[in-house]
Every structure is written in C-alpha cells, then in structure tokens.
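Why does residue order matter? Because the sequence determines the fold. Keep that principle in mind as you read this record.
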Amino acid sequence: MKKETQKIIVLVIMFVFPIVIYLFFASGKNNFAKLPVLTPSVLNLKSFTHIEGQEVKLDGHITILCYWGSDLNFKKGDAFNLNQKIYKRFYQFKDFQLVALITDDQEDQLKFLKEELSNGVGTDLVNWKFMKGSPLSIKNHFTSLKTSLSLDSKHSTPYVFIIDRKSNLRGRDDDEDIGILFGYNAQSVAELNNKMEDDVKVILAEYRLALKKYSVR
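Structure:
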C-alpha cells in the first residue's frame, strides 16, 4: 500500500506539477506584456523652468508627470501618497523622475511641501522635479496628452501619468474598471498600489530588456 502511495506521488510530480506551473505562468503573462502607448510624442517641457534652474527633459527619462497648477496647498495628500507608494520604490532607478508642473506663484507653497516631504517622511528629493510655468503652458501641455480627463479651475488634476523614455504616454487600454486608463488617481492609495506600481514595473522591465538586447554583440 505504501509503495502504491509513493507511485501516485511520483506520478503527480511528473505529470500534474508541470501543468500547474504552466498554468501559473500562463495566467500571469499580462504582467510581462508591454504597457500600451496611448499617446505618442507628448509635448516637451521647454515652456517650463525648473525651480532650481536644472535642465529637465521627458526624452530619455521614465517620468511620473503631475499637473498641480496653483493647487499646491491641497496637493499634500497626493504628494505623500506618490512619495510613499511610487517615488520611494523607484527613484534610485536610472533615469527615473517625478515631474510636477506648477504655476509661477506657487514657490512659497512649494517650500513648505518640500520640507514636509524631506523632513516628515525622510525622502531624498533628488528626482522630484518641480517645474513652473504659466497656466496656459500647463493647459497646452496637458492637452498634448489627448486624454478624456480635464484640469480643474486651478489648472490641476489628481491624476498622474507615466511617460516613457520616448516621450510617449503609457497606460492601459483594457483596464477592468474603466477600459482606457490614461492616468492614475494619486488620491487613491489602492490605485497606486494595485495598478500604478505594477505598470511602472512593466516600464522598467521593458527598459532592462532593451539594455540587455542592445548590449549583446
């Protein structure tokens, strides 16, 4: 009886286990699929000035793009969520940056926000890029995303966007909740956790694969 049991176990390992493994990886194939390009060639940042005079580009970088306009006093929650769930996990990756577009009159409010981010939660802000510009510049740039979303009266939105190294807007074209997912709601910790983090990982994985491909001689 004992030998028969052992034979059954061996047969399970030999035939059933490989099938289970196959189904596991087959069910997870979407995690390794490329994130669709929703809008190619997003407008560059030439209409904006970095708050500390640095040159900031979308091209050649993996960018989390925020439109905060003249609403910084009410963006502390969004900033904290992004900082904890996205920025801290990825900021050390080469060419990763988080860019926030704000209006020219927000410099004083920005000082308080940066102090809270760096002191309160101990963040290295090296790849937080705050860019200032006119309300029209922010509107024109947002329009170049060609999304179904809109800015509010303060030239702001809670949604943040993934821009790849070729300045393309990336997102989901088959999201289970809304169909086309252009941006991620920074007010929702669940959405940052369950969707945005995964999608940033996909973009970074694409980049790694590209590096390996072109490094092979």
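The radius of gyration is 22 Å.
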